[in-house]
Amino acid sequence: MTPSLLHQVLDYANRADPYPIYEELRKTPIHHEADGPYVISTYYEIRSLLHDPRISSDARNLSSTTHDPLAEGAQGEGALPPSFLRLDPPEHDRLRRMTNRPFGPPHSPRRVDGMRQELHGIVSGLIDDIGDPGRIDLVDQFSYPFPVTVICRLLGVPREDEARFHTWADTIAAGLDPDPDADPAERGKVSQEARMQLGMYLAGLVEERRKNPGEDMLSELATATGEDGAMTTMELLSTAALLLIAGHETTVNLVTNGMLTLLRNPDVLERLRADPRLAVPIVEELLRFEPPVQLVPQRTTLTDIEVRGVTIPKGASLWLVLASGNRDPQRFEDPDRFDPDRRDIQHLGLGSGIHSCFGAPLARLEAQFALSELARRLENPRLLEDPPPYRQNAVLRGPRHLSIACDGIRP
Amino acid sequence: MLGDGYLEQLKREGRIVVVGASLAGLRAAETLRSEGFAGSLTIIGDEPHEPYDRPPLSKQVLLGRAGADRTALPRLRSVDATWRLGVPATGLDRAARRVRLADGDEVPYDRLLIATGVRARPWPRAAEAELDGVFVLRTRDDSAALARRLDAGPQRVLVIGAGFTGSEIASACRERGLPVTVAERGAAPLVGALGGVVGAVAAELQRQHGVDLRCGVMVTALEGDTSGRVRVAHLSDGSTVEADVVIVSLGAIRNTEWLSGSGLGAGPRGIACDAGCRAFDIRGIVTDDIYAAGDVARSPHALFSYQFLSLEHWGNAVSQARIAAHNMLSESTDRLPHMEVPAFWSAQFGVNIKSVGVPSLGTEILISQGSLQDQRFVGVYGYQGRVIGAVAFDQAKWLPFYQELIETTASFPPPFDTVDRRPDGQRPIDADFPDPSVPTHGPTVTLSGYSPADRRMTFTPAH
Ligand SMILES: Cc1cc2nc3c(=O)[nH]c(=O)nc-3n(C[C@H](O)[C@H](O)[C@H](O)COP(=O)(O)OP(=O)(O)OC[C@H]3O[C@@H](n4cnc5c(N)ncnc54)[C@H](O)[C@@H]3O)c2cc1C
User: Fold this and answer.
1) Average pLDDT of chain B?
2) Other beta carbons within 10 Å of B167
3) Which site from A67, A68, A242, A368 is most exposed, i.e. has the minimal number of CB atoms within 10 Å?
């Protein structure tokens, strides 16, 4: 018997190229197997569900017969409360609004833009330190340390502690992978344990910042007094954990997928070398073509809803396959072509609606800096292994390593 | 003449004239070029400036965050046009296909687009309107002059009319810390556009931000001092307001006077056109060479019972301009109708307000998400059992969903549960729109079709 489509989506064997499976999925835009989730794979349906107020992000609304691997254990004693990513309005709106105060407009319009100099410095430093140009692991040497350094600076988390939170972050990120063969309860426990450890680590920092506030976001969040008042300590820890993890687990994939795609499209890489401004449309097209978050497996219906003639019952689990919607030929012409000159590019790579990527302005800027500098400085770069080995994760999809070589590093 | 090849010839060497050098005019010109029009293009505008954007004029510019001279509209492509700026069009000779200009010139056309928009309704008594310190806000120059006066730190600002523009002005003044009085003839701000239920929230917002809001009153007279500076306003309730800056924000008048005598179906309600933006003549016959777009146009909308709608909405100006330009260069079978769902936004007192559909057509409202008390909510408007509009206060990201409900003529009240549905959002209530025969500051959507009950039309057969 051929394995079900859902299994094929999650099957590691298809990680390097999941797109043919997505194409298969789109033949049944609302795909449902036995007691599995409803998998939505077409652009217009995904987009409208992302704006649909009958859809909840709160795992507590799942019916008891539907299990959500990502929510297991969330109710445990002393556990961190769900972050705003897993909450509905009004709690979601309040926490996101408060988190946004020190991050973006209207209160902090210059936070992200003000990091340009710093981003440039970090990128240059990492490229300077590459060493042997004949054997580079782009992930270990560049695309992982870059966003980690950035998010640490932004939040005010000591970079030296990276080794400590790396393992927790890894475990939490792995917990986002809806691997059907793993025991959900066991995985939930492991990932909740890691969240708690991370929370305890962050609690120490928050306490310090309260006494000794700096310019960083953690300080501002810890000492905030806006119209919404202050977050509770538990809310603050949960928010900080979310920012820390989402702040690098996604960007590392965006940058690595980006370089991989450019190396597969040398003409575009050449154009980028000649004109760094091309980084802007390249990153947008990348977010469509190889989005770092492939699917959103965390939604449920508050009521029976009808989508394309299919009634999805109340409390059902929905998976919105963003990466598939981004390659829907009903929406994008020649969707499997990587084309930075595309004009009409309203992709789903950063989601849409109230949960659209909080860090988007920063992620875009990071990726633009990273790719344009790599293009400028690496001399005649090439892939040593294609496809590269991928991470296990089907949700946060990206290479675990990317072996490349070049003739030298330009100053 | 309209035989094979005419359109090709028009595209190659035709003459297209656009009257109105603002948002709709510019976007139409760009579309003409990107659809392959290679002939001569003339853009006529009575303002001396290149096309600029108006929404910032009552927001960022008044706050001093952007200079009025920094609002030029981004050019999406080169339009390679002959610009006749600073000269109004004064007449239209349809038989000779010529536009007459104030400087005596005439410009011939094969296709004409009218995008002359609206202008601010002035204070009705001319002598009082001329007092120093009395302003309207429609143009870049208006906004620059007003911003300068606000910089000088007036003692008190009086805003007459609490529609969107008036409310935005009041908001900007408060953000600058200036004392503000708002006088509104209706029961609350924004009632004409959004009804009394939402208007009450707008009123609460204004008061919380320190606006001295007076509703249900009219300003009856403005009075100046000996040097001709405005000093005091008299209100219909017998009270007075001392103010050295007065902004008259009483809605808009459509710029159609220059078309009188042309035989075009143009009047105070705008220029009647079909869903493809082709203008009608006064006999109700569609022209094939004259188009209208933007605030000046009124056209039937399929989603709203083919009522003629006049919309003072930025997005509408853009989309009608594109449709008009496309249709000018298209065979009848390739023409596109303008069917976009109306959408409008505003920013005031720290709140982002956005509406879709035509709330003012609705009779009932249901608060489907959030709550009026929190000043964060989505309100859905119902009309005869269907969803006709929606408004969001700081909840705009949900509106695409409600737009879909409007587009699919979904039933009202919406029967389903939503996130953040509160107990008071379980039942619809009267949306509380004022009697349409009582004028308010002027909503930004006007139903300008004649209803069968409308007795004001007189039928005079020509023969
Ligand atoms: C202060 C302000 C704030 C606004 N804020 C918002 C908002 O937040 N959201 C929103 O959706 N909309 C907003 N609007 C409305 C929006 O700006 C208009 O819908 C849009 O400008 C309409 O464009 P238009 O080209 O049709 O008309 P206009 O912009 O009015 O342009 C018409 C042009 O034609 C010129 N003209 C008139 N008569 C003649 C003639 N005889 N000869 C030559 N030229 C002539 C006029 O001077 C003008 O330059 C706002 C408007 C104002 C004034």
Assistant:
1) 94
2) 30
3) A67
Residue pair A317/A59 in contact by the 8 Å Cβ criterion: no
Residues of A in contact with B399 (CB under 8 A): 51
Question: CB–CB of A54 and B374 under 8 A?
Answer: no
Q: What share of chain B is helix, strand, coil (3-state, %, to 5)?
A: 25, 30, 45
Distance CA B62, CA B147 (A): 5
Question: A29 versus B1: which is more confidently predicted?
Answer: A29
CB atoms within 10 A of CB B352: 14
Across B138-272, the runs of DSSP E, i.e. the strands, are 157-160, 180-184, 212-215, 219-224, 230-235, 240-242, 245-248, 252-254, 266-267, 270-272
Of B350, B374, B419, which has the smallest distance from its Cβ to A53's Cβ?
Answer: B419
**ipTM entry:** 0.90
- pTM of the entire predicted model: 0.93
Q: What is the distance between the alpha carbons of residues B440 and B195, in angstroms, rounded to a whole number?
A: 12
Ligand 1 neighbours (beta carbon < 6 A): B 19-25, 44-47, 54-55, 57-58, 88-89, 115-118, 137-138, 165, 255, 258, 294-295, 312-315, 317, 344-346
The per-residue pLDDT for B105 is 97
Q: What atom in ligand 1 is closest to the CA of residue B20?
A: 34
Percent of chain B with pLDDT over 70: 93
Assess whether pLDDT exceeds 90 at residue A226: no
- In angstroms, the CA A133 to CA A130 distance is 7
Contact B382, B413 (CB under 8 A): yes
The residue type at A390 = Y
Q: How many CA atoms lie within 13 A of B264 on its CB side?
A: 33
**Contact of B192 with B441, CB cutoff 8 Å:** yes
Q: What is the pLDDT of residues B401-417, one digit of tens each?
A: 999 999 999 999 998 99
Q: Is the pLDDT of residue B385 over 80?
A: yes
**What per-residue confidence (pLDDT) applies to A176?**
80
Across the range A186-207, mean pLDDT stands at 89
Q: Which two tokens stand for residue A165?
A: 């939170």
CA-CA distances (angstroms) from residue B459 to B224, B265, B451, B456, B462? 46, 15, 15, 10, 9
Which chain B positions have a beta carbon within 8 Å of A90's beta carbon? 370, 374, 376, 420
DSSP A143: I
What local confidence, expressed as pLDDT, does residue B320 receive?
A: 98
Mean pLDDT in residue range B351-361: 96
Mean pLDDT of A112-131: 96
Average pLDDT over all residues of chain A: 92
CB A299 within 8 A of CB A18: no
What pLDDT, on the 0 to 100 scale, is given for residue A3?
A: 76
Nearest CA in chain A to B370: A90
For residue B320, give the ligand 1 atom closest to its CA.
Answer: 26
Count CB-CB contacts under 10 A for residue A127: 21
Q: Cα distance from B123 to chain A (closest Cα, Å)? A: 35
Task: State the burial class of residue B300 (Cβ atoms within 10 Å of its Cβ: 0-12, 13-18, 19+).
Answer: middle
Ligand 1 atom with minimal separation from the B26 CA: 25
Contact A48/B401, CB-based, under 8 Å?
yes
* A78-98 residue pLDDT tens: 578 999 999 999 999 999 999
Give the amino acid at A276.
P
Closest-CA distance of chain A to residue B117, Å: 29
Report CA(B192)–ligand 1 centroid distance (Å): 20
Q: What is the reported pLDDT for B451?
A: 45
Judged by CB atoms closer than 8 Å, whether chains meet at B419 and A56 is answered as yes
Specify the pLDDT at position B441.
55
- Rounded to a whole number of angstroms, the distance between the first and last alpha carbons of chain B is 30
Whether residue A106 is preceded by a cis peptide bond, meaning omega within 30 degrees of 0, is yes
